[in-house]
Design goal:
homodimer, 241 residues, alpha/beta, Rossmann fold, 7 helices, 21% strand, globular, binds calcium ion, hydrolase (chains A, B), cytoplasm (chains A, B), dipeptidase (chains A, B), dipeptidase activity (chains A, B)
Chain lengths: 241, 241
């Protein structure tokens, strides 16, 4: 079941104190390599698509790549069919997923990534939609997508911006750990890889590796939670396909 | 358009350092009054319904009320039709709303509250589902309800457990304020009353009053956000019906 898939799934676009995509720019350049000249950007997670595309364009141009935004394309499906690489940015995951459905991009992106093997970069909401469902997004459900099923480029869930419980907090809302545990109270729920800010997951075919400077926690239904450092091999999570 | 509606919408079941419903128990007793003898509890927001009903029963019995849990009823719709008061507890709002739909309780509860005038108490998720939609829940979408439309007992949204932005935080996920602002970027979105922990909204017919010890922020699409202390009259929010 080896696929051509190549994914770079980033927890967060901006790390505290740094610029947009600064903390992961070297990974992006290495991941895209020399063959990619232009990247197709998907700005749907934010309301101001023009402004968002401008910020992304500036960054990718500074790294030596051209950037087209799918919201400027006459035919978004054709834009996907013809692209060399895709970058889906963060924002609100519900808004993003709904727009992917509204524009009929789910099958187009799946084919391009899983069959044609073009590189896919996701950040935050763009990482959530790369997984099997958006059940473990942190975002507010400001719109109602036709399903929580997402691109399914990997057969598990990711929780980006993972936050450890704060022992000093007096706030009584659920901790992130409690929320993910509630997800696993439901039947047949897949593993959740919770990646802290500063952390990213590189997937190449059937191999998955944690990159970045912070670690990740793995939550699995009916099993103990485990902590993993950058460099960890998460390929076994791909075997559920 | 005066309705018989009587609602007590609580931000949070437990306030830091206190017991279950302790911070609002005097409001509950005053709200239910002397005529109500038994309360129908809806435990759907948590996975462990038996345990949850036990906790709620203990608390309501200590206040002098009997408690039946709807999950123990042979026919949940009939249990609603025959009840004297309803209390919907907190947990996961998506799970709660899905179970309300699955058990066909939405029209039954609406009729009981809006036409028959029985008292409705909601806490956290139970407050979210009392409003027009659950678009402004803080919870993780661990299940997919058939709609985000909720009981619609009031024509606006509530954000419970409201948290002010933390200027010292290095976490880059959206603040609560940013999340609600993103909601209002969508067309035709109703006001959002953001109630801090320790805060509750009393609705009697066409009158709404903020109670408790903390304040609330009111977010309205295209208008400046405003801050309000306990005692504030929010009746104008009911006029959108
Ligand atoms: Ca987000
Ligand atoms: Ca909750």
């Amino acid at each position: 079941m080896t696929t051509k898939r190549r994914l770079l799934l980033i927890s967060n676009s901006t790390l505290h104190g740094g610029g947009y995509l600064e903390h992961c720019q070297e990974h992006i350049v290495k991941f895209l390599g020399k063959q990619v000249k232009r990247v197709l950007f998907v700005p749907y997670a934010l309301h101001g698509r023009d402004d968002y595309a401008k910020i992304a364009r500036q960054k990718f141009e500074s790294l030596g790549y051209g950037l087209d935004s799918v919201h400027e394309a006459e035919n978004p499906v054709e834009a996907v069919q013809n692209c060399q690489a895709i970058f889906i940015g963060g924002g609100n995951t519900f808004r993003l997923l709904k727009a992917l459905y509204d524009n009929n991009l789910i099958p187009a992106i799946r084919k391009k990534v899983l069959e044609d093997g073009i590189p896919y970069i996701g950040s935050s909401a763009g990482t959530n939609v790369a997984t099997i469902t958006i059940n473990t997004t942190n975002d507010m459900p400001i719109v109602y997508p036709p399903s929580l099923h997402a691109l399914g480029l990997v057969p598990f869930n990711i929780n980006p911006h993972y936050l450890d419980p704060d022992a000093n907090s007096k706030h009584m809302g659920e901790t992130r750990e409690q929320r993910i545990t509630q997800y696993h109270e439901e039947q047949d729920t897949p593993p959740v890889l919770a990646i802290r800010e500063g952390c990213l997951l590189l997937v190449e075919g059937d191999k998955a590796t944690l990159l970045g400077v912070t670690g990740a926690r793995l939550f699995q239904r009916g099993k103990a939670t485990s902590e993993h450092d950058p460099g960890h091999d998460f390929s076994f999570l791909l075997a559920h396909s």
